[in-house]
Structure formats: C-alpha cells, structure tokens
C-alpha cells in the first residue's frame, strides 16, 4: 500500500502532519503550509500529508495550497501499519508533538518537531538527526496539555505562536542535507 501510494514520486519525500491532536498543541496551519510550499519550491519536494478522522479540513487546506503534482494524501491509509510503512519511505517528517511523530521515530524517519507546552525532555524523538523546535519562555514547557492555563485556552499559546516557519525550515534543510546519502534517487 505504501509503495503504491508513493510510487515514483519526486524526492525528497517530506511527510507533514499538521493536526496537533489538541488545540493547545496546534502550531498554525498557515506556518506548516509555508514550510511545505518552500520545500516544494526550493528542494523539489513531494509533500506527504498524514492525518486521521477529523483532520480532513486541515488536510484539504494543505492540499489546496500546494501544487497537485507535489502532494500525496496519505491520510486515507488503511491503518497504522500502512502509515508506518509510508513514513519509513519518507526522507523527513515535519510535525508537532504527535503520535505520528513517535511512529516516524520508530521507523527511523528523521523528524522536525514543533514543541509548545509539552516537555521535550520527556516526549521528544531521540533519533540522531531529529530536531526539536521550541521557544524558551518562563512558562514553557508547562506540560499542561489536558488542562492548559487560562491564558492559553481558546488561542494559540505563546510557546507555539513564537515558533517561526524560518526556524522549522532551517532545521528541515539541515536534516535533508545531513541525510542526503540515505535517500534513493538523489543526485549530489
């Protein structure tokens, strides 16, 4: 299923998981789109969108903002094993602190993860090329995911709002450069 979905897509293959799972962990979808669009324009990347039930509007938003020939909708994969196989074929994953981040880590896919209120010392992926992007604030990480502080309820918390697309993009480019030799069909 993964091979059929990916086919002979142009590399690098960059999985992007926009859904945060909870509003307090949601990095701005516009920023995910900015990073994905820049990777397509500057690296010739194919973007592999992941998600699940309830994520359709975010996935459609991303699809609409990217060239149709450079996006693969992997959100309809048949199950966790298929998603793992898809992620294993990707050169990079860009996500927040999510379950799919841990799945990508399990199959060895390098990760750029945007962390806000979650404590990266506890939840971060630990691969040799993984990058955690976060801001240092006196209140972060609060690790108050299920019961966020009142000032963070109903809006994007400062610990996520202050993470810029440029920082995520820089980390993504560094990983793609470091891992160039592990990617098939890539010329130097």
Please give the count of helices: 8
Overall helicity = 25-40%
Distance between the termini: 29 Å
Quaternary organisation of the protein chains: single chain
Q: What order do the SSEs take from the amino end to the carboxyl end, as H and E?
A: HEHEHEHEHEHEHH
Q: What percent of residues are in strands?
A: 5-15%
Number of strands: 6
- Helix vs. strand class: alpha/beta
Query: pLDDT below 50 for ≥5 consecutive residues: which ranges?
Result: none
Q: Give the CA-based shape.
A: globular
- Main pleated-sheet profile: 6 strands, parallel
User: What integer is the average pLDDT?
Assistant: 92
Q: Order of strands across the biggest sheet?
A: 3-2-1-4-5-6
Rg over C-alpha atoms, rounded to the nearest angstrom: 16 Å
Structural summary, described in words:
The protein is 37% helix and 13% strand. The protein has helices at residues 2-6, 29-43, 56-64, 80-89, 99-107, 120-123, 158-161, 165-178, and strands at 13-17, 46-49, 71-73, 92-96, 111-114, 131-133. Strands 3-2-1-4-5-6 form a 6-stranded parallel beta sheet, with helices on both faces. α2 (29-43) links the parallel β1 and β2. α2 (29-43) packs across α8 (165-178) and α4 (80-89) crosses α5 (99-107). It is globular.
């Amino acid at each position: 299923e993964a091979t059929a979905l990916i086919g002979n897509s142009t590399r690098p293959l960059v999985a992007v998981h926009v859904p945060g799972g909870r509003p307090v962990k949601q990095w701005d979808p516009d920023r995910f789109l900015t990073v994905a669009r820049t990777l397509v324009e500057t690296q010739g990347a194919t973007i592999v969108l992941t998600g699940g039930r309830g994520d359709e509007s975010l996935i459609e938003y991303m699809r609409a903002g990217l060239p149709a020939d450079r996006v693969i909708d992997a959100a309809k994969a048949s199950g966790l094993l298929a998603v793992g196989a898809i992620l294993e074929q990707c050169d990079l994953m860009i996500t927040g602190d999510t379950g799919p981040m841990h799945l990508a880590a399990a199959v060895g896919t390098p990760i750029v993860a945007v962390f806000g209120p979650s404590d990266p010392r506890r939840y971060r992926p630990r691969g040799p090329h993984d990058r955690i992007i976060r801001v240092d604030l006196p209140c972060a990480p609060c690790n108050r995911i299920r019961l966020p502080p009142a000032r963070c309820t109903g809006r994007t918390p400062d610990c996520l709002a202050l993470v810029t697309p440029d920082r995520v993009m820089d980390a993504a480019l560094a990983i793609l450069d470091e891992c160039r030799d592990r990617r098939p069909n890539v010329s130097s």
